[in-house]
Amino acid sequence: MKLYSFGPGANSLKPLLALYEKELEFESIFLNPGKFEHHSDWYKKLNPNGQVPALEHDGKIVTESTVICEYLEDVFPDQNPLRPADPFERAQMRIWTKWVDEYFCWCVSTIGWHRMVGKMVEHLSDEEFEAMVAKVPIHEQKVKWRRAREGFPKELLDEEMRKIGHSVKKLEARLQESKWLACDQYTLADICNFAIANGMQHGFSEFVNEKDTPAILDWLARINDRPAAKKMFASQPSEFNRKKD
Ligand SMILES: N[C@@H](CCC(=O)N[C@@H](CS)C(=O)NCC(=O)O)C(=O)O
């Protein structure tokens, strides 16, 4: 089994955490976003969307971070299950994973692109940049790359920040009443939301801080403290290592 990813952050973090929680053997293949390796022809043969993560198992490719996590549960159901057995609780888990994929992930991602992705391409000439964009397979992603370079409209950034504030309140309210998001068990709901929320106490401290979100901070600390999370973070390339290659 092979996982293609950018390392332990955002959507790539979801299957990485699930693989370590389930103690599954796999080869971790790291793509360097700074070198646009995810837009290379060899990778687009694996994932025509030119995005990470992607899982290769038994000669087949599974894409979409949350789907990969569910796939691992389907193939290895008895290995440290990350889905509740009860159908109602499983439905709650999927409501949380659907929400992160359709709402929470996007507002955080746009601000992340605004802050970081523009800088990744500012050294390129217009021609070099357009040659890079030409390799991006998804139209909406081409638009996002261009906007990141020229600057996102202020109204859009304001709206995304409003959505982040709303998302944080929703998570805090749930975690005030329950240790884990879906039920009394650690599930993919926690893993998939953690993948986006981890680090917000630094990058979005106006929203995630001790005064406003003590339950989110406890939950982040509890997950970071899990043996699987510690092992995973210790063995995957860090942001720092990435910049050196
Ligand atoms: N819906 C996809 C989204 C994947 C995605 O947006 N991946 C990002 C990294 S977190 C990516 O590859 N971005 C590079 C790009 O779009 O050019 C999933 O959940 O796997």
Which SSEs are present, and which pair or pack?
Blueprint: E1 2-5, H1 10-21, E2 27-30, H2 41-46, E3 54-57, E4 60-63, H3 65-75, H4 87-121, H5 126-134, H6 139-150, H7 154-177, H8 188-197, H9 200-203, H10 214-224, H11 227-235, H12 239-244
Parallel strand pairs: 1-2
Antiparallel strand pairs: 1-3, 3-4
The structure holds glutathione.
Residues 6, 10-12, 38, 51-53, 64-66, 136, 141 line the site of glutathione.
Task: Walk me through the structure.
The structure is a single chain. The protein has 245 residues and is an alpha+beta fold. The chain has a domain of 93 residues: Glutaredoxin (3-Layer(aba) Sandwich). Helices cover 61% and strands 7% of the residues. The longest helix is centred in the middle third of the chain and has 35 residues. The C terminus is likely disordered.
Defining key terms:
245 residues, alpha+beta, Glutaredoxin, 4-stranded mixed sheet, 7% strand, binds glutathione
Oligomer: single chain
- Helix and strand content put the structural class at alpha+beta
CATH H-level superfamily title of the domain at 2-82 and 233-244: Glutaredoxin
CATH architecture of the domain at 2-82 and 233-244: 3-Layer(aba) Sandwich
Number of helices: 12
Output the strand order for the largest sheet.
2-1-3-4
Biggest beta sheet summary = 4 strands, mixed
